[in-house]
Write a structure and sequence with these properties.
Belongs to the short-chain dehydrogenases/reductases (SDR) family. InterPro entries: NAD(P)-bd_dom_sf, Sc_DH/Rdtase_CS, SDR_fam. The protein has seven helices and seven strands. The protein has 265 residues and is of the alpha/beta class. α4 links the parallel β4 and β5. The protein is globular, with a radius of gyration of 18 Å.
């Protein structure tokens, strides 16, 4: 087992990518702290993983004191902390015309500042364990979709945070910090988000090969499989790295707007 004996806090793990990462961590021998806003869903995850393998904390990750509470839950339940997965995020459409400053601040608070605060709160224990941080970003960090302005900026800032701390924390404290940037992933929220926009219930079965050369988009379990490498000792001294998990080369790829998925007329 690649994570045997490790304790991992996974923010935003009541569903989607975070849930898949938590499940895979336990399968690899770790114990996890499940976190999110959906108490019922979180309890389901904990029950599935068994209570001696998982603990639950429900709270807005950007609330004052939330990072410290997550660290305390790990220590109180499992006695140590080896890794942080910063997965919690708000994904919501916005562009230059619809993004006001209050909205922008909220996105940055959750997607960028809260991960920083959680790393800060966990750092003494990560230093003790010679542990690591894995930030979950997005390929949108490189530029972003037309209607994901604030989200894309927040993930770009997270990427710079990863590069910066990945160097300084490893050199000074022996703590590695890396990031994976998923592409388009078929999470529960993504399915419902598209349905709310007027798409068919099975919209994900018919996507242009411009966006899904493989004939489908990514599964949360595939992101989780990659996450295990960065959380395990297998990744050795590697730190400050950002890896894109997408089906095609991203940089320089600029599909015409006419190919972007649109809701049916």
């Amino acid at each position: 087992m690649r994570l045997q004996g490790k304790v991992v806090v996974v923010s935003g793990s009541c569903m989607g990518i975070g849930k898949a990462i938590a499940q895979r961590c336990v399968a690899e021998g770790a114990r996890v702290v499940i976190h999110g806003l959906e108490a019922e869903l979180g309890e389901e995850v904990v029950n599935q993983l068994k209570k001696n393998k998982a603990a639950l904390h429900i709270e807005d990750i950007a609330a004052p004191g939330a990072p410290e509470k997550l660290v305390s839950v790990a220590l109180q339940n499992f006695g140590r902390l080896d890794a942080i997965v910063n997965n919690a995020a708000i994904v919501v459409p916005s562009n230059i015309h619809t993004t006001d400053l209050d909205f922008f601040r909220r996105i940055l608070e959750v997607n960028t500042l809260a991960p920083f605060a959680l790393i800060q709160a966990a750092l003494p224990y990560l230093i003790q364990a010679k542990g690591c941080v894995l930030n979950i970003g997005s390929v949108n960090a490189w530029c972003g979709e037309p209607d994901l302005l604030a989200y894309s900026v927040s993930k770009g800032a997270l990427m710079t945070l990863t590069r910066n701390l990945g160097d300084t924390l490893q050199r000074d404290n022996g703590v590695r910090v890396n990031q994976i940037n998923p592409g388009w992933v078929l999470t529960e929220k993504e399915i419902s988000r598209k349905q709310e926009q007027g798409f068919a219930a099975d919209w994900y079965k018919d996507i242009s090969d411009m966006f899904a050369p493989a004939g489908r988009i990514l599964q949360p379990s595939e992101i989780a499989a990659a996450a295990v490498y960065w959380l395990s000792d297998e990744s050795g001294p590697i730190s400050g790295q950002v890896v894109d998990l997408e089906q095609y080369p991203l940089i320089g790829r600029n599909p015409p707007k006419s190919l972007f998925p649109t809701k049916p007329k």
